[in-house]
């Protein structure tokens, strides 16, 4: 995504995400869940659309607190599908709720979503895709790749000559620890 390093600087939405989030390691399960939901919602749309709706997503999904979202029933699903501030796609909403429940199960087994990711790291992109497809809903190759790149599990978020890349490497994301 080297073009992102050219597009993002000074952009009101892309800039802050590029400079302070994209490619940096993420350890909070709720923050990882947020990133997964946002990547799922980007499918078929531009990342700018998702970034512009991010605050509305945070409100609609109660700050992406996994246990809250996993407990959503028909009333919450209907609320989300009628919320014009977010992307109202039934498959994506259903995936978010389902995937929150999956993360609850992963936390019981591995301690956290983050620990589950670490347990499986490093994998090749294709193996990550297979794992995510077996584990979660609405997770194809692009969604999985962007999720893992954006959270530091796969390299490639920034070009080597991008000033942010040095800060990412200093933060020691998992892909820098590959053997």
TrEMBL record:
Zn(2+) binds at residues 5, 18. Keywords: Metal-binding, Zinc. InterPro entries: Adenine_glyco (IPR005019), DNA-3mA_glycosylase (IPR052891), DNA_glycosylase (IPR011257). One of its GO terms (molecular function) is metal ion binding. It comes from the Bacteria. It holds the Pfam family Adenine_glyco. GO terms for biological process: base-excision repair. This is DNA-3-methyladenine glycosylase I. It comes from Halomonas eurihalina.
């Amino acid at each position: 995504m080297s073009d992102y390093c050219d597009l993002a600087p000074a952009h009101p939405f892309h800039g802050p995400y590029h400079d302070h989030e994209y490619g940096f390691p993420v350890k909070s399960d709720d923050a990882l869940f947020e990133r997964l939901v946002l990547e799922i919602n980007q499918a078929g749309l531009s990342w700018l659309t998702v970034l512009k709706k991010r605050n509305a997503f945070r409100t609609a999904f109660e700050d992406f607190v996994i246990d809250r979202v996993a407990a959503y029933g028909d009333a919450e699903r209907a609320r989300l599908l009628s919320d014009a501030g977010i992307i109202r796609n039934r498959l994506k909403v259903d995936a978010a709720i389902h995937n929150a429940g999956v993360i609850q199960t992963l936390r019981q087994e591995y301690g956290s979503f983050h620990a589950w990711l670490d347990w499986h790291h490093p994998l090749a992109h294709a193996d990550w895709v297979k794992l995510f497809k077996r584990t979660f809903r609405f997770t194809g190759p692009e969604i999985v790749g962007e999720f893992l790149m954006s959270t530091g599990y796969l390299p490639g978020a920034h070009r080597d000559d991008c000033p942010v890349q040095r800060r990412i490497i200093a933060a020691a994301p998992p892909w820098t620890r590959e053997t």
